[in-house]
Each structure stands twice: as structure tokens, then as C-alpha cells.
Amino acid sequence: MSDKAKKLLEKFAVKNRYANFGPCLRKVMIHGFRGIQSMDLNLEFPITAISGLNGAGKSTLGQVAICGYKKPTTSIDYKRQYVKDFFPISPADPKPISDDAKLIYTYETDDYKKPQEVTISRASSAWSGYKRQPERYCYYIGFTVYIPKVERRDLSVYGGANLLFTEKRDINPDVIQKMSRIIGHKYDVVSFQGVSHNDKESEIGIASRLGYSYSENNMGFGEGRILYTVDKLETSPVQSLFIIEEPETSLHENAQYEFAKYLLDVCNRRHHQIILSTHSSVILKALPSESRKLLVRDQVGVEIKDRISSNQVRSILSCGHVRQLDICVEDIFARVLLIEIIRSKKKELLKAVAIHDIGDKDAVREAVRVLRRTGKNAIAVRDADVGTAPQDGLLSFPGNKPPEVEVFSHPAVKELMSKKYDVDIDWILSRDDVKDHHKIAKHIANEAEADEEVVRALAIERYINEIANEFDDLIVRINAAVCA
Ligand SMILES: Nc1ncnc2c1ncn2[C@@H]1O[C@H](COP(=O)(O)OP(=O)(O)OP(=O)(O)O)[C@@H](O)[C@H]1O
Ligand SMILES: [Mg+2]
């Protein structure tokens, strides 16, 4: 973990949190919004990065969070956001929120044992609870704020020829350096020039580098977004809440990494709380695990997973195209057994691992060595009769015999084979032609007039059910290897 992340964790420790970050959000309970039945969003770090597949509900979480604060009494040009601003109801969208929808916000106070709770719910058609909220400046940095001006065709483009320049705001050299570091090229000057046209006022960013200068109207998309976002984070009041939508958009990978580092830096200096949605494994990796959340939506509902490893997120977001761990096993039986063990104990790991049947124990050891030399994350799960060498990434199945023998000689499996197929396993195992354990399933299948795959699958399922607890250690080790 970087020094800045460590420092932030300390500042955000619950006892220090209010002193550093003010009445920031500790938790938001969301009920009945866009298919989210009931979920706690726990804010464990000043920056919360929410990842997940498209449509999982990432933006929804940021949108409800920003509705958690009243307009500060000291504010002048500031508009707070309400639920209705993000969840409009229309004939096209009759029910984005359920009738019993509610939000329970938990805020830090000067006594960490007594946080403040405010419930926002719908009494008939109007929402109640807003008045009890604390005050805070909140900013939503969505997509449209950075649309290049030529696409948005705002007044700086429309009225380009007749613009009147008003006040100019120079950006401080320290901040310019931060912008330069993210984008990857040096700026000499960055300023925001006030403009007016037909009673409309706006500001346009202007950058100078290598002896020429250009405005937002001629800036790259990524460049415009960064200048806008960094300026907002630097010039807003301290301890603000920021919701940032997919900050990686139009940034090259190193810029994404530098931007995540910048967020750690600005939170350390200005004590903002930031909630961002992202599909970027580069950003997730640059942030500590306390930042990372993964949203998963399926037929049952939407679930949030805390502190997920960036490797696992990458595997999940790529739907398994990027596997984070190669696991070598000896043969097909071991492969099927391992897949089913993982499925029964921690099925989300299946998308993070690729399991290969390699050959005998020596071939497996060699495969792990070669994979590791080429920079891959690899381990082996070998047969129990070979033993383990965890320091070399060599694990083993439970028991003390090859897995086929462990599975088929388990009393519950014998009973199943006898009842279902009328096959006596003890007799098959004692036969001279079945000395090679790799062939046990085949012989049973022949005797039973069944397919080998079916016999194997049934036996493995029964065996795993019977000794489920004996796989815990193996799963812990595989999980640790995925997260390494
Ligand atoms: N009325 C509704 N009832 C149930 N679910 C809904 C409803 N309206 C929207 N949704 C769900 O909410 C999703 C949109 O939520 P949200 O914008 O928060 O997702 P997201 O994770 O930010 O997606 P993206 O990565 O594409 O930006 C839709 O894809 C849909 O699954
Ligand atoms: Mg979104």
C-alpha cells in the first residue's frame, strides 16, 4: 500500500474520521432503487471505487449518496440534488423506485459512537427527511460535464466570434503540475477564462504549452475532463463530497493510474470524500482494498462485495477472459474434482482461475515452474499421495491416496454406486485389471452401462457433499493465490 493510502486509512479510522473529514458518510442503506432490494454501502475509505458489469447499479449508488446533504447555508451559486433529479418517473419509466423505497444515511459526528442517522422515504408521493440532513457541498462529475464543447455547442462555440472576456482565473502552478503529471505532458500555463455572450456567462479552460495556447474548444476529450475535474477538486470547499462517473473515460492507462494516485493526494490535502464508478482495473489496482467494491446483479437481486482484490475484479469484468491464476492438476478427474470443489465452496473464484490437466506429478511441478518464470501467477493442486510444497506453489487434495481412489472408496459413494448401478466398488477395486487408478471410473461405467462422465460427476458430487469441510484449507490457499 502506498504511503498516501496508509496515511488516509489512518485519517479515516473511525475515531479520527470526523476531525478530518467532517460529517462524511459512513454508510448508506438503499432499498427499492432500480432493482436494488436492500443493500448497505459501507464507506471504509475516503475514496470508494464501485466496479461491476454494465447495469449492475454502480451509478445508482453514487446518485443516492449525493442526495444525502442539505445545501450549505453559506452557499451562493449552489444547487443541491434530490432523488427526483436522478430517478425521474415518466410513462417510459413508471417505476424506477418501489413504493416502499427508502434511504438510510449514516453520517459521522463528533462522537464516533453516536453517528447520525437520517431516513429519506416516500410519504404518499413526496419524499420526507431532507430537512434533517447535515449540510455539505456535493459535486456530481458525470459524463456531460466534460463533453467537448464542439459537441455540446455551448455559448463559447455558438457565440465564438462575439464572446466578451470577463474575469480570468489562473490555476496555481502546483495544480498545473498535477494536471501535467496525469495527462503526461507539461503545461506552461492553465487558466479558466470567464466569457459572456447575450447575458449568458460561462468559463472556458485555456492551456499553454510548447509556446502555443488553445482553449477547451480544441482540447482532447481526456485532457478537458482532467482539467475540469482537477480544478473542481482543488477549488471546491474542503471536505466536499464528489461523485465521479467512470473517470477512466478517454484516458490512456498511465493517465488512469496517475489520476488514481492524484485522488489519494487530493483527499489527503483537502479531505474530500469521493465515490466513483469504474470499469478500470488500473484505477482499482492503484487504490487500496478498502476502496474497492464490486456490484453483482443477477436474477435474485443486486449484491455488493467489499474489499475485493483487483485481480478478481479484472477477471469478473472480463467475464473470465482474463484469468488471474493458472492451476495445474494431474488429469481430467482431478480437474473436474477441483472445479466442483471450488463451485461448492466459493464459486466466484471459478471466473478467476484457469485449471489445466497437465500429466503426472513431475510434469505438473515443471509446468508451475515454467509459468512462474514467464511472470504468470500459477500453482498446482496435486494428488494427495504426493504431498505438498506450498513454498513452490504445490498444494494437494485432501486425503492420502489419489483422488479417484479417495472418491470411489468413500462409503457414501460406494452406497450410491451400488444403489444406482448395482455395482460393487470393492469388487472392482480388487480386480487385477483395475490397478491403474486412472481407469476406475471407466471400469465402473462399463459395468454400469453408463457414460464415464456421468459416473464421475455423480461420484464427485456425492463425495464433496460428504466431506465439504475438508476443502476449506485448499480454498483459502487458492483464494490467497488469486489475490496475490
Ligand atoms: N425500474 C427498474 N427496475 C429494476 N431495475 C432497474 C429499473 N430501472 C433500471 N434498472 C436497472 O438499473 C440498471 C442501471 O443502473 P446503473 O445506471 O446504476 O448501472 P451501472 O452499473 O452504472 O451501469 P453502467 O456501467 O452501464 O454505467 C439497469 O441496467 C437495470 O438493470
Ligand atoms: Mg453507470
Structurally, the number of domains stands at 4
Terminal CA distance: 13 Å
Show unreliable segments.
none
Strand order, largest beta sheet: 7-12-13-3-14-15
Largest sheet: 6 strands, mixed
Bound molecules: adenosine-5'-triphosphate, magnesium ion
Write down the overall mean pLDDT. Answer: 91
* Number of DSSP strand runs: 19
Q: Any idea of the CATH topology of the largest domain?
A: Rossmann fold
| CATH classification class of the largest domain | Alpha Beta
Question: Mind telling me which CATH architecture of the largest domain this is?
Answer: 3-Layer(aba) Sandwich
* Overall 3D form: elongated
Report Rg: 29 Å
Put simply, the count of helices is 19
Percent helix:
25-40%
Structural class: alpha/beta
Tags for this model:
484 residues, alpha/beta, Rossmann fold, elongated, binds adenosine-5'-triphosphate, binds magnesium ion
Structural summary, described in words:
The chain has 484 residues and is α/β, with parallel strands linked by helices. It folds into four domains: 3-143 and 237-316, Rossmann fold (3-Layer(aba) Sandwich); 149-219, no CATH class; 323-398 and 468-483, Rossmann fold; 403-466. The protein has 19 helices and 19 strands. The chain has a six-stranded mixed beta sheet with strand order 7-12-13-3-14-15, with helices on both faces. It has a five-stranded antiparallel beta sheet with strand order 2-1-4-5-6, covered by helices on one side. Strand 10 and strand 11 (212-215) form a beta hairpin. The mean pLDDT is 91. Bound molecules: adenosine-5'-triphosphate (ATP) and magnesium ion. Magnesium ion binds next to helix 3.
